[in-house]
Amino acid sequence: MAASKGSELTTPTLETQRFTLRKFAPGDGEALFPTLSSEKHCRYLTRAPFATLEDLNDWLFDPEWDGRTWAAIDKANGEVVARLVAVPAGGEISEIGYITVHHRHGEGIAGECARALVDHLFGAESYHRVTAGTDPRNAASNALLTSLGFTREAHLRQSVKTHLGWCDEYLWGLLASER
Which domains, ranges and CATH numbers included, belong to the chain? Predict the structure, then answer.
């Protein structure tokens, strides 16, 4: 049965055909910094781009955060290509998130890795429901969630205040029974 706090759960290593998902480690932030320091690539995030690698690492390794973080490692070359998270959302519910390094966009990395994470959450950890939130303008992320079987359950208008101002949000859900 799923635990209620991310800190109580381990971050197991997961495998896909092309990637190994392992617990995020010091040094992994360096691969994400070019993406997470770019205004273009942070336009759908709730916060502004990071000014320094130190600021990014402080955020990535915030001891108060109760989620779990995986680094997706390309089996072919050992490169960190994405970050995936699972955050407890109460009871047997988890929220997921993902970001791919910008120079690897369009390769299906987030889809392949998110599928492995969702499969793990429903299978090994017996979650009842997995959720995600996206910016309605983020066509790639919305398409990815649709391809994984998620249902768009809500369109919240100007519900999230970001570095760009008030933004809309789509709320997505997937039930274990739908897998």
Answer: 6-178 (3.40.630.30)
